[in-house]
Amino acid sequence: MAVMDFLAAYDAIAEDDVPQRVALLREAMATGRADLFAELRAHRPVFGTPVGVFVTRHPDVLEVLSAPGTFTVGVFGPVLEDVLGAPFILARDGAGVHWRERGYGQLMLAAEDAPRVRELTARIADAVLDEVTAGGADTFDLVQDYARVAAARVAAAYLGFAGIDEETLHSCTRRMQWAFAVNPGRDPEVHAAGVAAGRELHDHVAELIARRRTEDPVDSPDDVLGRMLRTRLPDEYGFDDERVNANLVGYLAGYQQNATQCTATALKELTVRPDVLADAERAAGAGDPARFDAYVWEALRFHPFVPVTPRLCVRDHVLAAGTPRQTVIPAKSVVLACFASAMFDEEVVDAPAEFRPGRPPAHNLVLGYGAHDCVGRYAARVIVPELVRRVLLRPGVRPPPGGERALDYAGTPFPQHYRVRSGRTAVPTT
Ligand code: HEM
């Protein structure tokens, strides 16, 4: 759908023909999201629809996500708690669970871990790439054979899921994420599958915790779970092993699918731009991760894992007050904060269509923003770039010419397959 087509087509549908308006909207989101957002930013930056109010300009997205007392996670929070079977920070706002356990999460997912998590990721990624390329096949599936496995092994080693197999970690989080993040119609089967997956992971982790409690701490692996088990909070917080369980499973739910998909979509965004790819390959080999990482985060600006996050407006709010787009958002509205649009807001981001590594951090919302921004960001910031870098260090491992965009969603909300050549030689590097 070309720019300027959408609103004319939408307005031509009778206002009470909600199914048709929603169908058009869904089609535009699925097939021409960037064009849709460009048109909305220019002509209807705060766009009320039957599925929610699209907020598309950068300052307005920030305004929504900075006011958790007004714009709550109530749209998906209850579903996430069904799936986890327990309260969790991403399901709550304000005092209590969110305030307290957000602080706890920052301690457990310590920023200081980043250098060793990068090394761990590099080692695991290389081992998985060696395994998949040793088989002799000309191509492999970057999502299923590499990113999924490497991400799960990093989770096992860093977060502490050792002993739970990779397939369980991946498939459970996939069903959980599908149920709480991308099931707006509350399809009961999707919901039930997410709840069952959450229960399955909970039970595995309960066994794991019971086992770890009996181990001598000296023999215990130095991972996030170990840190959680060594941490004693005041009794009045009621933070028992069930809370440890819910937080650890919640961290995995926030990480596993994201890391897997980001690896594939970042590689896609780099390989569709041959000049950028060549620069990124040079940066990958230069041994300066900070320079390289900027390519990956810029790539993800073009294809973020979370393009839109919903919030529930719980009291009337004047959005963008004092600007020409000032709009009253009535209480009980679902508000869709469109990260993918905000990162292309031409009034804030210089030449947004250009690929420019090293843009100001505030222009990159890939890890969220505000009260619920990614509490795993220090780990995410090294894991995702390193998973991509290990691929770029193998010049033969690339999508075949013409296949750079060929992400296959296999009927799911997330890319499931991405075929790449298996070129054999690794470039010796650090
Ligand atoms: C791998 C790439 C990752 C991406 C792209 C990513 C992205 C995001 C985004 C966009 C949000 C905000 C959601 C919202 O506002 O609705 C978020 C929140 C969160 N992320 Fe991540 N994340 C990643 C890795 C991780 C990791 C490694 C962990 C933990 C180990 C984690 C745990 C969380 C948690 C618990 C929240 C909720 C924070 C809160 O509610 O206060 N994420 N993440």
Structure description:
This protein has 430 residues and is of the alpha+beta class. The protein folds into 2 domains: 1-31, no CATH class; 32-421, Cytochrome p450, CATH 1.10.630. It has helices at residues 5-12, 18-31, 33-43, 58-65, 77-84, 97-108, 114-134, 142-159, 166-181, 188-214, 224-230, 241-271, 274-285, 289-302, 339-342, 377-392, and strands at residues 46-49, 52-55, 71-72, 139-141, 309-313, 317-319, 327-329, 334-337, 419-421. Strand 1 and strand 2 (52-55) form a beta hairpin. Helix 7 (114-134) packs antiparallel against helix 8 and helix 8 crosses helix 9. Protoporphyrin IX containing FE binds at residues 89-90, 102, 105, 109, 250-251, 254-255, 258-259, 262, 305-306, 309, 366-368, 372-376, 379-380, 383-384.
Topology:
Elements: H1 5-12, H2 18-31, H3 33-43, E1 46-49, E2 52-55, H4 58-65, E3 71-72, H5 77-84, H6 97-108, H7 114-134, E4 139-141, H8 142-159, H9 166-181, H10 188-214, H11 224-230, H12 241-271, H13 274-285, H14 289-302, E5 309-313, E6 317-319, E7 327-329, E8 334-337, H15 339-342, H16 377-392, E9 419-421
Parallel strand pairs: 2-8
Antiparallel strand pairs: 1-2, 3-5, 4-9, 5-8, 6-7
Helix pairs in contact: 2-3, 5-9, 5-10, 7-8, 7-16, 8-9, 8-12, 9-10, 9-12, 10-12, 12-14, 12-16, 13-14, 14-16
Bound molecules: protoporphyrin IX containing FE (HEM).
Protoporphyrin IX containing FE (HEM) is lined by residues 89-90, 102, 105, 109, 250-251, 254-255, 258-259, 262, 305-306, 309, 366-368, 372-376, 379-380, 383-384.
